[in-house]
Here is the input.
Amino acid sequence: MTLRVLDPTNEAKPATGEAAQRLLSLRGTTIGFISNGKEGTKEYFGHLGRILQEEHGVARIVMRTKSNYSAPADKHIVDEIRQWHAAVTGIGD
Amino acid sequence: MPLTSRTYEVDDLMAAQELYHSNGWTDGLPVVPPTEAAVLACLDWAGMTPDQLIGIEPVREQAITAEKIAINAVMAGCLPMHFPVVVAAWQGMLKEEFLLHGTTSSTGGCAVLVIINGPIRKEIGASGGFNALANSDRATASIGRAIRLGLINVLDVRPGAIDRSTLGHPGKFSYCIAEDEEDMTWTPLAQMRGVPEGLSAVTVMAAMGPRQLMNEWTHEPEELLETFAAEMRGNQRHYSIYGGNYCIVVPKQLRDQLQAAGWSKADIGRFLYERARIQRKEWGEVGKGAVVRDRGESVYTALESPEHLLVVGAGGPAGGFGAVIPPWMGHKTKAVTVPIGACVDCGPEPAKPA
Here is the structure.
């Protein structure tokens, strides 16, 4: 007996954004870090920022922290992203 | 209106199982194959069209339609008469204050607890009696499972994808209870939360697993409730210190004693608001001294206010076993109550004709 069954997934997904163009060099760039606010991001992101500046010539590091680690980044942070050449996000569990 | 979901032809029941399992469309258990007839029967029962919008997931802006929720409800084993409860639960989950994306993607690993109130419980056979928090009946088992399958398939809440839970808990298979309204004098939960008497409703809460307790050695309300308070304090010490919607499940044996002493649900809320609180320095006693810092004397209540306690009467007729069901993460998410098949946002009632 043949059965005809239905797809349970959300087939009408909204279009996802395109990946930004990759940077050819980090030299002279501004890199933003977005922490989810948990303890683990503090030292790690600070350390990573220093490496980017000292070893890869990054001109400026911007550190931002979400107000709620379980919600999307605050609007003022999202608005600021366009002023950066690249962003690093991460959780700090 | 015809269904628009993609269809697949399979040779038999077993082939259907393999199709759904191999695509990651299940919770690991067998599913009921969602045929067009079964899905349309759910939609017809609820008076909904396939493209009817249940809501939009606020973070990823995913539209949730009745057709997709019905497909997943059929897969979970729901009968058409169960479907309105599933729809109302989704409407609650899609309210901004529920924080659906955060609660379903968190490493914290909570599940969606669905609490059913009102006449629909009896119509669909949702029992609030024996084994209330587990496999008590077909209705609550399948409704709870429909929520999880819908999250998996409609919003990609799969382990390792959107679902980043470290452990999760067994309630992620199904977590649905009905309040035992006939066997108590207390006001049902839905009415406590503003739903008019006589209407059916669901309350959804982003909930951790139930922490079971027992006290069969006193009839004193304060002593009985102190056991619940201690369990809440334990959760504050071991899991999260922050206040939010806690649910307590009170079985008949304990309910009878509290009711006989004249204690209402509001009285219980006031008592537990006062008793379920700890100082931050207590974290130092359970291995979390590193985050006490200079706030050791600060007091944290498990409830932000007495009204934030959800008191549910449920469970078998004998046994002094209750349960505390903690929130996922304090006040970041709020429990939401939604009437079933009634519009409460439609403005004032139209004037009656003279």
In short: Chain B has a mean pLDDT of 95. Chain B touches chain A through 46 residues (CB under 8 Å).
